[in-house]
Write a structure and sequence with these properties.
2 strands; mainly alpha; 11 helices; globular; about 5% strand; about 75% helix
Length: about 280
Amino acid sequence: MDAFLEFLANGLFLGGIIALLSLPLSVVWVTTDVIDVATGGYAVAAAVVATAIGLPLGAIAGVGTAVVLGAIMGTIFLGFHSLRTTKDAMLIVLSSFAVMIAVEAAVLTVFGTDSKFLPRIAGTWQVGHAVLPYQGAFNLAIAILVMAGLAAMLRWSTLGLSMRASAISPTAASLVGVAVRRTQFFAFVLGAGISGLAGLLAVMTIGVTYFSAFPFTLLAFSGAVLLGRRGPIYAFVGGLLLGVVDAVSQAYLPSGWAAGVPSLLIIVVLASGRLPATAFGGARP
């Protein structure tokens, strides 16, 4: 029983990072109707910049780098809409994929192929026979604080209300005076900043390489759809659950099976009809 509790706790600790990746992808998705594939790229960029500079200034510089990349992606998003050449969101999604590839190429060129690490928070505490790391608890605590702050902003701030209105109906929001495009641009910037923070936690916990960007995006998307496309809170919980499933699978299943369980779970969710038929077609939740 103690071993299971240890696996469960470590799954939640890992899930904290996945939740922080799922959260910004969901924010951008429901606000703009676009899946920002560059989410993992923001995390990797923040991580490698932080390792190059070192803590504590590296953390600020890393998140700042992610925010700049998010602003670039937001500008691309606005550019497509201002040109009015297409209403196909897939072109914007492909552009975000190109941004992610550009980040991977830049990291490979500048920092090489070696895995990057930052010193983790040292120490563990013991609960019964279960040994739990301080770093994992720190990851989960930061994730919960970010989720709480975002929930408070969406509920009570003017900007948060604008984001919610834009998510429900951009046309109706614009008719009542909401600056929809500016709000959507900020969603990219905010999402990139949160992704950068997730990258910092990842580089302190599991390490990061130039090719981590796409796996991070896959984890973010998996967490965002696990409980259906219902918004950031569900994406956050989905990320936590995905971490638990992964940790328990690694503990009790052969390595080959364990690696495929999270992906199998997502396939089951997608096939179950828990997502609406319009989830990938531009309709609002």
